[in-house]
Specification:
Layout lengths: L1 H8 L2 H12 L9 E3 L3 H8 L3 H13 L4 E3 L2 E4 L2 H7 L3
Antiparallel strand pairs: 1-3, 2-3
Helix pairs in contact: 2-3, 3-4
């Protein structure tokens, strides 16, 4: 029911950042955490469109908060992402 509250009271960037941080898995050999979910799957989880998720990830990538490559979303600094999303 926390998920329902997030959908009702959080904006898409906040929901997406929270989901990315929760689903991130530590990278191998000290590499940054990463998420392997597709943008479509993430959109379904956060109650948004794939296009809106893509735009949000693009903004965060330009700001250096995430890196998107090879079907993975890398979180070099999850705390900075949370702060940028207002969490």
């Amino acid at each position: 029911d926390a998920h329902i509250a997030d959908l009702a009271f959080s904006d898409l960037p906040g929901r997406l950042a929270k989901t990315l941080i929760a689903r991130a898995r530590p990278g191998a050999r000290g590499r940054p955490a990463e998420v392997s979910d597709t943008q479509g799957a993430l959109a379904a989880m956060v109650g948004g469109s794939r296009e809106a998720v893509n735009r949000c990830l693009g903004k965060w990538q330009k700001a250096g908060l995430v890196a998107v490559s090879d079907g993975r979303i890398v979180l070099p600094d999850p705390e900075a992402l949370a702060e940028a999303a207002g969490l």
